[in-house]
Amino acid sequence: MGTVITPAHSSPVTGSQLLPSPTPIRFLDERGNPVDEHQGYQEPDLGLVVEAWRRMVVGRRLDTQCSALTRQGRLAVYPSSRGQEACQVGTVLALGPDDWLFPTYRDTMAILSRGVEAHEALGLLQGTRHCGYDPQKVKVAPQCTPLATHALHAAGLSYACGRLGEPTVALALVGDGATSEGDFHEALNFAAVFRAPTVFLVQNNRYAISVPLARQTAAPTLAHKGIGYGVASEQVDGNDVLAVLAVVQAGVARARAGEGPSLIEAHTYRLEPHTNSDDASRYRDEAEVEAWRQRDPILRLEAWLRRQGALDDTRAKAVAEEAEEAAASLRAALSEPAAPDPLALFDHVYAEPTAPLLRQRAWLEAKMASLSEP
Amino acid sequence: MPTYTMAQALNRALRDAMEADQKVVVFGEDVGALGGVFRVTDGLAASLGEDRCFDTPLAEAGIVGFAVGMAMRGFRPVVEMQFDAFAYPAFEQVTSHVAKLRNRTAGALSLPLVIRIPYGGGIGAVEHHGDSSEAYYAHTPGLRVVTPGTVADAYSLLRASIECPDPVVFLEPKRRYWARAELELGPGQGEPLGRAAIRRPGRHATVIAYGPMVATAMEAAEAGAEDGWELEVVDLRSLSPLDIETVCASVRRTGRAVVVQEAPTFCGYGAEVAAQVAESCFHYLEAPVARVGGLDIPYPPPALEHHHLPDADRILDAVAGLQWEDAR
Ligand SMILES: Cc1ncc(C[n+]2csc(CCOP(=O)(O)OP(=O)(O)O)c2C)c(N)n1
Ligand SMILES: [Mg+2]
Fold first, then answer.
1. Which domain holds residue B100?
2. Which of B147, B182, B217 is the last residue of a domain?
3. Do residues B166 and B231 both lie within one domain?
4. Which residues of B are known catalytic residues?
């Protein structure tokens, strides 16, 4: 320790090795038929795929529940990730328990899939806390709203882990729109220069609120952005969880082996509006949404699993029931109007509240006491 | 008479300015088909053309820097930052270039551009959607900082900002976007930039407010009247430059002053107003100038924001504390 680690490229990489596959990696077509478009990536273990399916089914039910809870005022806002289940779940399943996830506001399903309790995962969107879980405990950074800013944090954290001799990988989830922000580019560059074990996964859901992908980039794909920074890149069908698992696992393995960061573009689609308060009819046709419904990540997976003999009606029914129970306990967890302690507002501005903050705290306490007097 | 919300008045100002001058262009995130997340640019792209109002890649530094370049060749860009805290990536462009280009080039280059920023809290939004960032801009020489408190001003101040040869940071109090007023809007309603307005006359104390707090100050004056307080409300409208003459004329009449801001109180804009009032009206003051502001904490989660935000009661408490017992 104490010495600065100089990143050294063990073997020179050529540009073409960094370029993504010309077409998105996929194992399954839209109907769940196997296709030979996976360019040598290993098909993930069937048990893992079944587990992914289970989490996707439960995740979608919770997502629907969250949207419903906004209508009842139990959540301040909810950015749905319906349609992006394969990305949200596949990514998390490719991580080890000590790896870190750096999610955005869009990625509640990924956080839930990571095992964070629903009432903790929803602290931000409930409007009661900025972050409802303990990031150190669950190895999930706070959900990030200022776009792409957290990509640098993922690079820095994974670099720090390397310096400490820890085999940790950090994975940052980024939207297609966020790839236009300067911080995204700085993160790729930093990660590459310091050979940080970072995986950047872009969920290209085709829109940044109302703005279509064509307004974000003139590049052939978003994955092409990696080469300019010396970052190995790949593109994947983000609605095929087999492909997401295979490609993210490869990126994680690469990072863990000290081979540096990677950039993965997952092609997907957000089936719901940007959030519950968005009006998507202003910027996209129902026909387009319908076309993407036909490429549903869960339906294609179920079709394939059934053909593999890994899924039958009994199992499907059991998981549907599990999903209902998860939704019921989410409703229960959020059934009470949230009432956080106002005096806690002063607790964590600094390590210790400063004298001016203690005065403001006393003022608020007195004010609340006077208001509660009969 | 027609009624307008503040968002509609801003929309009308943009439309009228774009119709009056082909060099006025509007761009930013989601300002095209969507019409902005608050619908301030609603219909502009459809009716005036996609070269007049357009979406850009999602990058605030890019938006402002691009606007600088366009303004250097004679366009009058009016750009939108989607929310207060999402303008921070553009901070370097704003402070190092927008604010300084005229000065650095000894006047050879001027930047008639407007940066519109919805700001402030009170809409129940999650973190990064409720910042009061006015002090950062007002502290930067070379920027004009304007913030309307009424629907009528939203129109006239935005028109004047677009016509201004200096760069203007135009701060829109987002929680007042839905405030309604009956009024006629249109050309000729220009209001010179840099003048405060007396919103309500009163002789006991002056309440100085701006942006989202103007309505709150009016509410306090209304409530105070029931208890016999006659409060004069001054709406600053322009934060930079500050119309200290109008403020001090009022304070000299009333002898007491409360400055209200939504931002954290420490080092806030209200501190500047309080200092200037003390410097200019010392012998007229019956009590030290009081400040009412937000708590000195990061903007809280929405479930707690009402504890942070000043309300009419907090203003009246401050008025009550202006050493009336010592009144001459
Ligand atoms: C720096 C910054 N600018 C603007 C915003 C406002 N905003 C929130 S989400 C969003 C669109 C993001 O699109 P994308 O990156 O594609 O992610 P998606 O929402 O589609 O998952 C915008 C513009 C923000 N959060 N941060
Ligand atoms: Mg997107």
1. 3-182
2. B182
3. no
4. 129
Q: How far is the CA of A213 from the centre of ligand 2 (A)?
A: 8
**Ligand 1 site, residue A178, Cβ cutoff 6 A:** yes
pLDDT in tens, chain B (328 residues): 899 999 999 999 999 999 999 999 999 999 999 999 999 999 999 999 999 999 999 999 999 999 999 999 999 999 999 999 999 999 999 999 999 999 999 999 999 999 999 999 999 999 999 999 999 999 999 999 999 999 999 999 999 999 999 999 999 999 999 999 999 887 766 678 999 999 999 999 999 999 999 999 999 999 999 999 999 999 999 999 999 999 999 999 999 999 999 999 999 999 999 999 999 999 999 999 999 999 999 999 999 999 999 999 999 999 999 999 877 5
List of residues 6+ apart from B239 with CB closer than 8 A: B134, B137, B138, B145, B146, B147, B171, B210, B269
Contact map slice: B 186-225 vs A, CB within 8 A: none
CA distances from A259 to A11, A199, A262, A324 (A): 10, 11, 9, 42
Q: Is the pTM of this model over 0.90?
A: yes
Whether A270 is catalytic is: yes
Final residue belonging to a domain, choices B182, B208, B241: B182
Quote the crossing angle between the two packed helices B213-226 and B312-320, to the nearest 10°: 60
| Residues of chain B neighbouring A129 (CB-CB closer than 8 A) | 301
Do B239 and B282 belong together in one domain? yes
A182 touches chain B (CB under 8 A): yes
Complex ipTM value? 0.96
Same domain, B265 and B116: no
Query: Which run of H or E residues covers position B261?
Result: strand B257-264
- Residue B33 with chain A: CB contacts under 8 Å: 210, 282-283
Angle at A137 between CA A111 and CA A67, to 5 degrees: 25
**Thinking of the domain A17-340, which architecture would CATH place it in?**
3-Layer(aba) Sandwich (3.40)
3-state secondary structure of A215: helix
Q: Is the CB of B133 under 6 A from ligand 1?
A: no
- Cβ–Cβ below 8 Å for A216 and B88: no
Instruction: Report chain A residues whose CB lies below 8 A from the CB of B308.
Output: 345
By CA distance, what is A278's nearest residue in B? B37
